[in-house]
Amino acid sequence: MSEESSHHGDxxxxxxxxxxxxxxxxxAISSRSREMARQAIGDNSPEDRIRQRCSIAVGDFAMAGxxxxxxxxxxxxxxxxxxxxxxxxxxxxxQTGIQKKGHASPITCVLDLPPGPDMDxxxxxxxxxxxxxxxxxxxxxxxxxNAPSALLVVCEMIEQGIRPALVIGTPVGFVNAAESKELLRxxxxxxxxxxxxxxxxxxxxAAMNEIITIHxxxx
Length: 219
Fold this sequence. Notes:
Elements: H1 24-41, H2 46-58, E1 67-70, H3 73-82, E2 87-89, H4 92-97, E3 107-109, H5 125-133, E4 141-144, H6 148-159, E5 166-169, H7 177-186, E6 191-194, H8 201-218
Parallel strand pairs: 2-3, 2-4, 4-5, 5-6
Antiparallel strand pairs: 1-6
């Protein structure tokens, strides 16, 4: 398969797409990794595709069994991308990792936003960043891979009636990471998360990029 052909079709069957594979070698590695993931995880749904990609991102097929999908997040993400909804991230590493090809959504890291005037300096910078956005998160895609405190704040905002289109929340760590993801799953909002203390930027980015890939393939 030529490099050009890697940019058409979907990741099922005999056709494979990877918008981030810009060289033949990169595409070959990506394609082989995906084939191994298909065999280990299955390939029956868009959620399986996200499980595959997240497992590849951390080098552990056990991640597939930890992924959780609430309220049809793939469809919600695709609809948001079709409308050019903004994407907000907790840290710059997540912002950098999200594919810029295949969609027209602006990607903003909340660390680059000025804190709101009512911030008291006690909150983390990521939490303050999301609070400063306020109602601007309505209809957006939120991708959090590092900061449990930010995910907790986003959950609070959702409980107050400010609804993003999709929340991808996979913060990693031993303090509030598992709890913040559990809280997210209790909300009536499309979300992708994972069980437990594992997760991190690679998982969040992988989930977002697979939704972008699905969107681009059908565009």
